Write the structure tokens for this entry.
Amino acid sequence: MRLEGLNLAYGRTLAVSGLTGAFGPGVHAIVGPNGSGKSTLLKAIAGLIAPCAGRVVLEGAGRADIAYLPQDGGVQRDFPIEVADFVALGFEPRLGLFKGVGAADRAALGEALARVGLEGLARRPISALSGGQFQRAMFARVMVQQAKVVLLDEPFTALDTATAEDLTAIVRAWAQEDGCVIMVQHDLAVVRELCASALVLAGRPVAWGSIESVLTDDVLTQARRMARDATLSEAAP
Amino acid sequence: MSEAAPALTEIALRGAGAGALALAFGGAPLGVLLIARRMSLSGDALSHGVLAGAAMAFLIAGPNPWALTLGALIAAVVVTSLSSLLARTRRLPEDAAFAVVYLSALAAGVLIISRVAGPEMLEQLLFGAANAPLDRPTLLLLGGAATASLLTLAVFLRGFVAESVDPGLVRASGRSGGGLHLLLMLLVALNLVAGFRAFGALMTVALMMIPAAAARFWATGYAGQAGFAIALSALSSATGLLLAARFGGEAGAVMTLCAAGVFALSGLFGPQGGVLSARRR
């Protein structure tokens, strides 16, 4: 997947500018200070925000090949739906409105629930899940989507250790299956452990490359300075 | 029955019962969906909004039931689209956009109907006339609305659920949920229009929404809640009609109060979060 001269904006406020590069197979991190455009970039790759300049090129993949797990969930948790049916919504991008769920899909659903440890809660309403259980259900939904590109926005935030470890193992498995996982992540220890490369963002790209070359004190300090300068220039009359 | 029913003749009772049953099958499952999408008040607002269309139709074609229906449906499309457009400008929250458009439509409807048809017609459209025998077109319309609602839900249920639970997922897969939203509001409008000549616009909304709210105490999934909502709506209507026949009173209002009673009992005894079942745990 390539980003070509990508500029993203909310109204007249530019959130990300001048982004050109590519993501291949493996786990990639997007890091940077708050407000640096990380989540905005994920939304643009997911097709939820149209670029104001440049483009996202999905080589050999369509919109149904992208799975997106947003930070706030964006899910109406009090909707009357049980865990298995919620996870089955992952079939939605591939099946559309009219195609039926087949036997293979049902098997994949069972496997995904077992993989995230929710097989015993399949008939529980999602409103009755804890935060960690709900994140497990979101991961199961991403799994049944069988997407080539997986976008995760802060996937391990506010999770207990056991859940975070289980979900980290799942991300690692996706990478081994030749998938492309792009993850917004604040915790640099997690980035160093999981990711092959990182994009450091501060409205503009600060650095993009292998973890060793990018996650240096110099680069991170520069990112913080650029983000602060951008905030000050926005606030200026 | 007629000897003991001073306000509701046996013929009127049968007609109203058939109409209420159709409304239970058509409206209550939609009510469950509206509540689940946190759009409970939009049904109420739409019931006010369609009056403007009915009023315009009355102005053009007189009290022709099909013309009133068509006018109300057109008004539903116009006001739903207008309020969605207004909400998308992001200058107003969606509920405020609903309020502006629907209340304006209501004012226009009240003005036209009260000047052209008189206050009695206005009262009938708002609060119903189920005590008078329902005419054939109204019954046909109620049956048609129920059939259309159930068929549409059967075909599009997965889309409605996906778009309600996670609109971002639907948008990320390249589809807009706008079409399904409009379809849902059209179905709501169709049931409202079918019901408002019998039970009144306000009471029709009540018979859609209150049993749907009560159903949340009995089931956890959409299908279970829709089934309970249909049963509770039919139960409320049947009880209300029999009480209205026995003791008198406007049928739509008595049916609505019965639905409120069913809601209270569900809130007490329902296994899914009812007060007593929660205490037993």
